[in-house]
């Protein structure tokens, strides 16, 4: 039986986020980077990410933050973002179908490209203040 369904409820968002970060933490390339920054604050990070994706996918504005700054100084480059995106797409394909699932992939792609270009920009100009 096909268990895939549309992303419709907060329960779906929590399943998506929990499954994704489960894969992230097991990944040898990016797992240790997340763990070294987040340490024992995983429950807080996951709660924040539920609100982030609720805001993006459902237009319910429960996330009030600045997504980029925590990434500015991370030791990451294209291969880390490619790994992140691979796990994001795999998780979505494993669990969900439909328009919101497609939108989640598209938003992940766009945010990863934007983060990578900002990281590279600041690396090339180390004295430029963050904005
Ligand atoms: C290799 C790629 C990535 C790494 C290693 C990474 C790592 C992290 C870490 C360690 C934090 C937590 C910072 C903290 O709480 O102290 C964080 C927060 C966050 N990440 Fe990422 N991330 C990556 C890619 C992405 C992408 C592509 C997105 C967008 C879809 C994203 C969205 C966010 C958001 C929204 C937060 C919360 C920011 C806030 O504090 O308000 N991340 N990330």
From TrEMBL:
<feature type="binding site" description="distal binding residue">
    <location>
        <position position="71"/>
    </location>
    <ligand>
        <name>heme</name>
    </ligand>
</feature>
<keyword id="KW-0813">Transport</keyword>
<dbReference type="Pfam" id="PF01152">
    <property type="entry name" value="Bac_globin"/>
</dbReference>
<dbReference type="InterPro" id="IPR009050">
    <property type="entry name" value="Globin-like_sf"/>
</dbReference>
<protein>
    <submittedName>
        <fullName>Hemoglobin</fullName>
    </submittedName>
</protein>
<keyword id="KW-0349">Heme</keyword>
<keyword id="KW-0408">Iron</keyword>
<dbReference type="GO" id="GO:0020037">
    <property type="term" value="F:heme binding"/>
</dbReference>
<dbReference type="GO" id="GO:0019825">
    <property type="term" value="F:oxygen binding"/>
</dbReference>
<keyword id="KW-0479">Metal-binding</keyword>
<dbReference type="InterPro" id="IPR012292">
    <property type="entry name" value="Globin/Proto"/>
</dbReference>
<dbReference type="InterPro" id="IPR001486">
    <property type="entry name" value="Hemoglobin_trunc"/>
</dbReference>
<dbReference type="GO" id="GO:0046872">
    <property type="term" value="F:metal ion binding"/>
</dbReference>
